[in-house]
TrEMBL record:
GO terms for cellular component: cytosol. Zn(2+) binds at residues 254, 265, 267. D-ribulose 5-phosphate binds at residues 27-28, 32, 139-143, 163. Signal peptide: none annotated. This is Riboflavin biosynthesis protein RibBA. HAMAP family: RibA (MF_00179), RibB (MF_00180), RibBA (MF_01283). The keyword Manganese applies.
Length: 393
């Protein structure tokens, strides 16, 4: 299923258009039509009712719900996903409240600063939902996604959503959802991509210390950073003043390889070669605390135990209950932006690293290969990296 990028979705929403937002395959695995209340076109409810066919709901922020005294629909919410329905409403100026124009009136009144609790009759024909304060970072539902999207367009935190159903009454998924999208020429995004977009947009990097760092490879500058997204402490080792286009090595910590010079991997050798390259050509190394491809030191050692029993580095991670690679490069992207680096010549053999950085808005101008010799202890490890993880070795 082809998905569009978040920026394109925000542009469509600001034009008043509806978009499709899909959630995870392991959750509802459904698509909802989403429109931002402040920007939506006059035919939005009619379009949703005619073509979406699902229940039309009005997600709002907790502040709006509190101001308008939109109380919970039930005392004990037993909904599978905890959707926070309030009592249904109609605006006091409606008649039956069910027509498309009257539901539009009710929806728009939710963001009218003149509206008061007495502006709505209860029950009614529009169903407000209350979004979690931190949106999709707190709950990966359509309620939160739609309110987040409203905020990202600069609108008041309110939206309309409607599940998409097939003509036979079943839920549109997969191919049928794609066909619906093509039929109506709609932008389609995923909640998962919205989560990553927010992470990239909201990660705040702060430089805490800057010192000279003489090493056996040359004289560098080291800057220590903290990040708002975690308690991690990160460092950048820099040769000279950062340039707009820069040579960059993003290196995930490897205690066994970097410190104890383990021959079970090629991490220590890659770090050494990177420092030699940066000393000669300029650039920086961003050192991330992502031991064992993100599973941590003890779990990496447990994976080594499995490898000694016949597993490879990928199957060992999976046997321990992890994905093959849990690393994330949002903090690295944030550091690059903080230092004014827009284009990167990346010292790496890992295509996934390229894709992740580009997702966070870093332009990869070229790859600089970082090949180090194998040894008798890491031959299988290197083969797995090439054959199973797609490293360019």
């Amino acid at each position: 299923m082809h998905l569009d990028d978040i920026e394109q979705a925000l542009s469509e929403l600001k034009r008043g258009k509806s978009i499709i937002v899909v959630d995870d395959e392991d959750r509802e695995n459904e698509g909802d039509l989403v429109a931002v209340t402040e920007w939506m076109q006059d035919n939005t409810v009619n379009f949703m009712a005619k073509y979406g066919r699902g229940l039309i709901c009005a997600p709002v922020s907790k502040d709006i719900a509190h101001h308008l005294e939109l109380d919970a629909m039930v005392k004990n919410n037993s909904d599978v996903y905890g959707t926070d329905f309030t009592v249904s409403i109609d605006h006091v100026d409606t008649t039956t409240g069910i027509s498309a124009p009257e539901r539009m009136l009710t929806a728009r009144a939710l963001i009218d600063e003149q509206s008061q609790p007495t502006s709505f009759n209860r029950p009614g024909h529009l169903f407000p939902l209350i979004a979690k304060d931190n949106g999709v970072m707190e709950r990966i539902g359509h309620t939160e996604a739609s309110v987040d999207l409203a905020k990202l367009t600069g609108a008041k935190p309110a939206a309309l959503i409607c599940e998409i159903m097939n003509e036979d009454g079943t839920m549109a998924k997969g191919d049928s959802l794609q066909a619906f999208r093509e039929q109506h020429d709609l932008v389609m995004i995923s909640i998962a991509d919205l989560v990553e977009y927010r992470k990239a947009q909201e990660t705040h990097i702060e430089a805490k210390a800057e010192v000279a760092m003489p090493t056996e490879y040359g004289d560098f500058k080291m800057i220590g950073f903290t990040t708002s997204s975690s308690r991690d402490e990160l460092v950048a080792v820099i040769k000279d003043k950062p340039r707009t286009t820069e040579n960059v090595r993003i290196h995930s910590s490897c205690l066994t390889g970097d410190i104890f010079h383990s021959q079970r991997c090629d991490c220590g050798e890659q770090l050494a070669e990177s420092m030699k390259y940066i000393e000669e050509h300029g650039g920086m190394i961003i050192y991330l605390p992502q031991e064992g491809r993100g599973i941590g030191l003890i779990n990496k050692l447990r994976a080594y135990e499995l490898i000694e029993q016949g597993y490879d580095t990928v199957s060992a991670n999976i046997a321990l209950g992890f994905d093959e690679d849990l690393r994330d490069y949002k903090d690295a992207a944030a550091i690059l932006k903080y230092l004014g680096v827009e284009n990167v010549n990346l010292l790496s053999n890992n295509p996934t690293k390229f894709q992740s950085l580009e997702k966070y808005g870093i332009n990869i101008t070229k790859r600089i290969e970082l090949i180090v010799p194998e040894n008798e202890h890491n031959h299988d490890y290197m083969t797995t990296k090439k054959n199973k993880m797609g490293h360019l070795l």
